[in-house]
Amino acid sequence: MSDDMKVVEDLTQSEYKWGFTTNIEADEAPKGLNENIIRFISAKKNEPEWMTQWRLKAYRHWLTMEEPKWPKVKYDPIDYQDVKYYSAPKKKPELDSMDEVDPELLKTFEKLGIPLEEQKRLAGVAVDAVFDSVSVATTFRETLHEKGIIFCSISEAIREHPELIKKYMGSVVPYTDNYFAALNSAVFTDGSFVYIPKGVRCPMELSTYFRINAMETGQFERTLIIADEGSYVSYLEGCTAPMRDENQLHAAVVELVTLDNAEIKYSTVQNWYPGNKEGKGGIYNFVTKRGICRGKNSKISWTQVETGSAITWKYPSCILQGENSIGEFYSVAVTNNYQQADTGTKMIHIGKNSKSTIVSKGISAGRSDNSYRGLVKVLKSAEGARNFSQCDSMLMGDKCGAHTFPYIEVDNDSAMVEHEATTSKVGEDQIFYLNQRGISTEDAVNMIVNGFCKEVFNELPMEFAVEAQKLLAISLEGSVG
Amino acid sequence: MTNKIGAKQWYLENFKIFESKLNGESESSFHKVRHGALRKLQELEFPTVKNEEWKYTNVKPVLNQNFTPAANLKFKTDNSILKQEYLFEGFDHHLIVFVNGLFNPELSNIGRLPQGVIVDNLKSTIKNRPELVEKFLHRSKIITAFDALNALYAYDGLFIFIPEGKALVKPIHVMYINGDNETNVLSQPKNTIIAESNSQVSVITNYVGTGSKNYFSNIVTEVFTDANAVVDLYKIQNEKTDSFHIERTEIHQKKESVFSHFNISFGGALIRNDINSTLDDEFCECNFNGLYLANDKQHVDNHTFVDHATPNCLSNELYKGILDDESHGVFNGKILVRKDAQKTNAYQSNKTVLMSKKATIDTKPQLEIYADDVKCSHGATVGHLDDTAFFYIRSRGVPSSIAKSMLIRAFVSDVIEKVKIESLKEKLNHMIFEHLNREEI
User: Fold this and answer.
1) CB contact under 8 A, B372 and A425
2) Tens of pLDDT along A301-328?
């Protein structure tokens, strides 16, 4: 066994460091799913009748659908009646200051290394912390309010901004879209809502920390971000979850809408519990993320760092409807042990001169499987469309797999589409070179993997780039930093 | 002729007629294989667009017409159907001709062969060398209903056997002339190329169409390259514009063998090629080269699959296409590197140029990799002819049509230059310009 193999072996021994459970009495719905449960959720959220009806429509449609079987992932069938669809911390204060936040909650965040106060003070980030499906703390709202920016939980938005919700919710990801989107539409409990008014550049990066906490609770988030004409927002989403044996289902929906000249930058760092070394437990992360560049010159940029979850299955996509609209997708997906990831993007070019860039980096170690699956579709109307895709995979160990499934469909002769993919391992010559400069093999592997991912990390906002590197280090413990 | 009964039913019913004409042969072990295929065809359905492998290719037009298996027909053929222009000239070759998939001894000119070398048709080989047929035929599993259909009516086809240590100096030129003036024919040659260890052979197949009626070529080709064997297989497909052409090529490679395939597609209304290579032993080399040129409403679908089952193998794939008018191109290239296939090098590239507003392409280069010490890459591009290059040539006073032709020639040259027979290169270049209706340079 060569040295770098040993390093890979070492890292597979590492335990999930952030496995702890906070004791907050959850206000839960009984297990199972039926129309009553949906009404219960809707009532808990004080939702208007039209919302309840919308949920029920989605639920009835979901009943007619079948779970998709095409992804390259394997898991035991999910019993949807064995999941609790609602859980919330009992106190649900809508707070003005940090002092009112449950101290235990604050400790949890501290353990995660993201103390709210510090972020507030140092980073200038407004945090809408989602703790088990209900937002408990919202900061910097005043500042945002002055600019006319709406940043609140989706439940609040349903109550207070029904006209925006009615207009945009389900317009990008309709409940008929796919199995998990339908399920989410029926039972979503919380999530974030952002509206940036015309011509406003959001002064700070908006961020939500998701955290699954109660036993056997599925997390069904729904996020909706609307950037009106000429506006800009950068949104951060980060996830950690405590150690758990039961598989947990997470089926979130994220919808982005950009109008003329608007831009949304959506960054994700995902580090949910990936299961133990034998592949037991871990989160099932089945997410539908999609953005639509509705207006001219609008732009949507997805950046993701996926290190956690037993199964990751998501395709943040862009529908490039507006002329000169731009879609971007930057991704690092790391799988270890028995993790499975089937992730990628879809770029649908409709508007003239629309452009898209895809940069995907996959790292597989242990016995994991890492797939890139992407679609670049250029419609007849997309005169002068341009796409560049690059998918690189790195394999660490001989028991893992790396796969690419790019679909390219071009219906316009003026389009330029380029795709390239490579698969390789950490070069022995590179390690040797670093070794002979006195750098240990472990550090050498760190450097190489970091360099491999640099292109994507560069796209992350400053605060996140640091966190992303930390997460990468933990997922590939001891060898990557 | 529209289809009153389903395609499957039609082919199953015609089998009774086929069987009754076999007289005596129906007891042979070869016929048992046909019965196996019969059961398979009864089980299987013809693929639809819901099938991932056939997602972009709708075979309905093929199934909407009833084609009569060639073995059930009596043809009035005269020697004039082999036109001089079909033949590739400028090099010595062994010529073997099939009309509607059936061997035609009068048109063929096989010539002298080194001892032990067989260049013959399947029918006589079953009689003369039953042990070879037994050993090599039907080694590939039936996957689709089209495979089953081919096996069901397996009757004749190309059979090449190169014994150990022999090298055939002259290439083998195989002509397939398909079509008829009276019936819609189903032409189903079953081709087998066997190269024993340390042997070498080069085979050029050419498919052309004749007659006023429509026809359907459904072909299965199996290639066996034993240790250190070198096999070049050129496929030049120039069927009639309204015909259908489906071929499955299976290549089984043994240690240190080198196989090169040239798949050049001109004619046909619906073309589907499945080219699968299994690298069964170490240090194999597999080269897939392809060119697809389509205009009008042609539909060209190329599926390639390289199975790296063992370590230290090399595969190289280059597919280029020019799509004009309302044509539709499909490319699906898959590379599988199995768990123990360390030190694999696998490269794949697919480039397509769209020449008109209504031409479309769906391409899907796939990598599936389970070994870590490998170098694999694939690339796919779709675009139009380079504007800046075009402008540059124009600025030197070159007329637009010539400038375009120059760019086309440059584009296809990557593939054409790999052809190892000089005079074939020129002929192919000529055919490209003729097919695309462009000024030849």
Assistant:
1) yes
2) 999 888 878 888 889 999 999 999 999 9
Q: Is the dihedral of CA B300, A359, A9, A476 positive or negative?
A: negative
Say yes or no to pLDDT of A91 above 50: no
Q: Which residue ranges in chain B fall short of pLDDT 50?
A: 1-3
Predicted model pTM:
0.83
B339 contacts A398? CB cut-off 8 A: yes
| B210 three-state secondary structure | coil
Which ipTM score applies to this complex? Answer: 0.81
**What pLDDT digit, counting tens, does each position of B115-166 carry?**
999 999 998 998 899 889 888 887 788 899 999 999 999 889 999 999 999 9
Yes or no, beta carbons of A420 and B367 under 8 Å apart: no
Distance CA(B412)–CA(B394), nearest Å, equals 20
The answer to whether A392 and A422 are in contact (CB under 8 A) is yes
Euclidean distance between CA atoms B102 and B186, whole angstroms: 11
The candidate with the shortest Cα–Cα distance to A82, out of A341, A284, A316, A338, is A284
A420 vs B379: CB contact, 8 Å cut-off?
Answer: yes
Instruction: State the Cα–Cα distance between residues A300 and B435, nearest whole angstrom.
Output: 43
- On whether the CB atoms of residues B270 and B62 are closer than 8 A, the answer is yes
**Which chain A residues contact residue B339 at CB under 8 A?**
398-399
Looking at the structure of chain A, the number of domains it has is 1
Domain range enclosing A140: 3-426
Q: Taking CA atoms, what residue in B is nearest to A374? A: B364
Give the start-end residues of each E strand in B226-337.
230-238, 244-253, 258-265, 270-279, 285-294, 299-308, 314-323, 328-337
CB B277, CB B253: distance < 8 Å: yes
> Could you report the per-residue pLDDT of A193-222, keeping only the tens digit for each?
899 999 999 887 887 654 444 444 457 888
Residues in chain A: 481
| Structure confidence at residue B72 (pLDDT) | 87
The distance of B147 to chain A (nearest Cα, Å) reads: 25
Q: What is the identity of the amino acid at A331?
A: S
d(CA A302, CA A293): 13
**Testing the interface with A: which of B330, B370, B372, B377 to mutate, by most A Cβ within 10 A?**
B372
CB-based contact B272:B297 (threshold 8 Å): no
Give B247 to chain A, closest Cα distance, Å.
23
How far apart, in whole angstroms, are the C-alpha atoms of residue A404 and residue A331? 14
* End-to-end CA, chain A: 22
- Reported as half-sphere exposure (CB side, CA atoms, 13 A), residue A472 has a value of 31
